[in-house]
Structures are given as C-alpha cells and as structure tokens.
Amino acid sequence: MLEIKNLVVQIEDNRILNGLDLTVGDGEVAAIMGPNGSGKSTLSYVIAGKVDYEVLEGEILLNGENILEMGPDERAAAGVFLAFQYPLEIPGVGTMTFLKACLNAQRKARGEGELSTPDFIRKVNAAAETLEINRDMLKRALNVGFSGGEKKRMEILQMALLQPQFCVLDETDSGLDIDALRIVSEGVNALRAEGRSFLVITHYQRLLNHIVPDTVHVMSQGRIVKSGGKELALELEASGYAEYRASEAA
C-alpha cells in the first residue's frame, strides 16, 4: 500500500526527517509513537502534500506510484486522507456545501459522475448517524463553534464519505473525552478493510485500546528506531520515551 524510502525533509533549513523508512501493508493499521519533536506530524503533512516542507531525498510510494510528484489535490484523488490534529474552522462555508464539493471533486478526478443531491444527503445522514453527529451541526459553517470532539467526528465523517485508500490520523485522540474517543474510534474501525490502510499517530496507548494496531513504530530524531506488534505500545506506556530522548541528546 504505502512505502517510504529514505525520506529526508526540512523546513526553513531545519532538518526534521532524517532518512525515514516505513512500509504499511494493504489493510494494515500502523501506529507511530514517539517523543515530542520527533517528526511525527511532519511525516503526516509530507504524505498529504503540505507545501511548506522541502523534500531533499526519498520517495513515498502509494501502490507503487511516487506521490511526491503529485499536488495535494491529486494525492487526495489518489486516495490519501489526512485527519488533522487541530481541524480548521472555515467561517462562511457551510458544512454540507463543503462535503458535497469535496466528494464530487474527487469523483470527477476519478472519472465518476457527480452524486445527485438526494443521494448525497442520504450518504451524509447515514454516516452522521453512525458518528452521533447532530443534524444541526450539518447546517452550520464548517467546524465553527464545534467542540474538539465534534471537530474530530466531522473529520471521520469526511473520511467515511470519501472512502480513501490510505488514512493518516494525526493525534486524533487529542482533546477528546472518553465518550468522544469511543465514538470516533468506532467510526474509524468501521472503515477498516482489506483495501484501506491507516497510519495512526498518537502519544498515548488509550487510543490504541480502541483502534488496535497491527504494528507499532517508534520515531526519534526523524526516523523509525524501533518497530513491533501492538504490545510495543504497552511497553511505551509503562516506560515512557526516556530512552529515546536520551538517544536524541547523545
């Protein structure tokens, strides 16, 4: 599904990723954990195509195609989705208008016809019910006045509608209470499928109790320094990141 080879990235002459290698298989849920400043969010932005970052070396292959040669919109059409740690508020843009524009833009890029308004509304209502999203939220401007949990549910709603191949969740658990964490996790788990992979970036084991990963990777100094099964997250929860911070200081 996704293969990253020797990825070297900087921003404003500050090197952040240092020869990172990572493979996420078809249908796999991979978690990335690590201390603050290790490059986890940078990795998510570079996969999605945020323009601020300069890629000095390396490749990011999605099903064998180097997406570094694509713009952010082309990556989205190819099946890449990023759920932000802090979703943006967009005053003046209705939630339903935004959702329909995104969905139809991707369908057009893939050579598919636009959804009719009734079909679109049915899709949104079905997904919103699963995520316990109040219909009144859908009538408001995108994320404006939403709580942290509501914004994260809206991100997962977008993912459910767009049906991407590769989903990056950047600290989706940030700012969520217990109930919101459960609802968001259930929405993610409902999308797990053989043809869809996930990269889950988190600091805490609590998210991985709900979204159980197949593999766990530890980042430090802009590269993957340790990989293992889901039990690795439990080890990190018990011991913390002290040994990795020590290696950074060495």
Automatic annotation (TrEMBL):
The keyword Nucleotide-binding applies. One of its GO terms (molecular function) is ATP hydrolysis activity. Pfam families: ABC_tran (PF00005). Signal peptide: none annotated. Keywords: ATP-binding, Nucleotide-binding. InterPro entries: AAA+_ATPase, ABC_transporter-like_ATP-bd, ABC_transporter-like_CS, FeS-cluster_ATPase_SufC, P-loop_NTPase. Residues 2-246 form the ABC transporter domain. It comes from the Bacteria. The keyword Secreted does not apply. NCBIfam families: sufC. Belongs to the ABC transporter superfamily. Ycf16 family. This is Fe-S cluster assembly ATPase SufC. It comes from Methylobacterium soli.
